[in-house]
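Support request from a user on the community tier.

User writes: "When I paste my structure tokens into the form, the page sometimes reloads and wipes my input. The last time it worked, I copied everything first. Here is what I submitted, just in case something in the input itself triggers the reload:"
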């Protein structure tokens, strides 16, 4: 753990109440614990003994761990260090089926979402989209508020059976709290699928 997180590195922290999601800064990464500075407005969401989830960019992908707040001093969270972490590799972000309609706000087009991953989503639409354009979208996941961001089409193919377009796109301008919500949703669904 100590080798994966560096001093002054930014990390995303998610308490039990997702409204307290924050971008913190690593002050110390020791063998026994981590010390992370959290912005003052989000401190009220963190309590001693409470569970947190932490996400941080790592060389191989994204570091994900669950741990516990041991102590809070000023705006510094002391988080118990753990070897129970995972590296979510970018090239291996699992696609999770997600059957729902997604609205492209700029074009007033409703698309059907086929799946979602931490990096983007796959849609089916009647109209061919432009790979040079970002489309404003809005959607929700289980128990989350609306997520608003842009989707940039990367690959478009035509389904010969029904004449519709299959659009694979990546998220653009996704807020930190929303990115955490998507990663958490995919991680949860992947775990559920493995345990079936």
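"...and here is what came back when it finally went through:"
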């Amino acid at each position: 753990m100590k080798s994966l997180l560096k001093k002054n590195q930014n990390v995303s922290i998610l308490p039990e109440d997702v409204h307290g999601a924050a971008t913190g800064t690593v002050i110390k990464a020791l063998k026994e614990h981590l010390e992370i500075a959290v912005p003052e407005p989000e401190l009220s969401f963190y309590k001693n003994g409470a569970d947190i989830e932490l996400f941080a960019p790592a060389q191989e992908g994204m570091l994900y761990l669950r741990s516990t707040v041991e102590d809070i001093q000023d705006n510094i969270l002391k988080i118990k260090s753990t070897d129970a972490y995972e590296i979510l590799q970018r090239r291996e972000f699992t696609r999770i089926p997600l059957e729902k309609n997604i609205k492209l706000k700029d074009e007033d087009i409703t698309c059907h979402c086929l799946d979602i991953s931490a990096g983007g989503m796959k849609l089916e639409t009647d109209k061919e989209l432009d790979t040079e354009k970002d489309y404003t979208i809005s959607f929700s996941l289980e128990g989350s508020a609306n997520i608003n961001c842009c989707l940039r089409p990367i690959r478009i193919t035509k389904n010969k059976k029904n004449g519709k377009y299959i659009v694979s796109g990546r998220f653009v301008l996704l807020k930190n709290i929303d990115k955490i919500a998507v990663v958490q949703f995919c991680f949860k669904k992947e775990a559920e699928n493995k345990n079936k």
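Agent notes: The reload is a front-end session timeout and is unrelated to the input. The longest strand covers residues 61-73. The chain is about 10% helix and 50% strand. Escalated to web team.
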